[in-house]
Amino acid sequence: QKPITVQNTSIITFSNTAPSSPFNGFTENLPLLFSELRKVPHDFAVHLGNMVHGGSSEKGIKNTDLNRQYTILNKLYINYPVAVYTIAGNSDILDKSNKVYSAHLKKTANYSFNYGKLHCVVCNTVTIKETDVVADLRWLANDLKKHKDNFFIIVFTHNPIFLPKGRWGQHRDRKIYHTIFQTYGVKAVISSNRHKFYKIEKDNITYYTLGTFGYNIGDSYWYYNQYYIIKIKDNKVLIEPKKIHFGKLRYKLLHAK
Length: 257
Fold this sequence. Notes:
11 strands, alpha/beta
């Protein structure tokens, strides 16, 4: 593969911002998160999943509950100064269907986009009715094949492909994914669905788990990161974890009135 020089790019990622209840209210600190992110120069943002409180109708959750949450969330996305790309997480679907997610956010389970010479792939790793692992892998390989010779490639997934030894939750098809990533020159894989940060280097591919947490009132946010800045500079991927002191921000807002 010929060397590809990608322009300097700054990306913000965050995840696990779902509200504590699917039936009323919404994530209390989410407006504060978006307010803080607006202060940070970046080219686009990626929500790595778990943005609403869905799951199973056996718990009484209905499509109307997801519709209400996505309507609130979309207002934040629409008014955001740069594009926000999304990945369906386990809590963003209902009864393994992503129909409500796709209807509101206009995103399919798998898609890709270019930013200059940077090719970004959003690869589904959640069990949903509208696709399956074989279809996901076939789509992934075809997309990467088309772009491997002319782009610097990074992949975004919800579930981690690899995790450190002793950590539960590595993808069961991780060897297949890794072979595809190797074949088509993927530089980095960015995932979440955890609350912590992990980094694994394997055969010139770096796997990052950029976990975040702490957006609801009562969450112990100070133990976790609230967002990450991914900087692509000189053809290298650099990660900066960031914390937000929500308590201090809420105090300032309360006493500013």
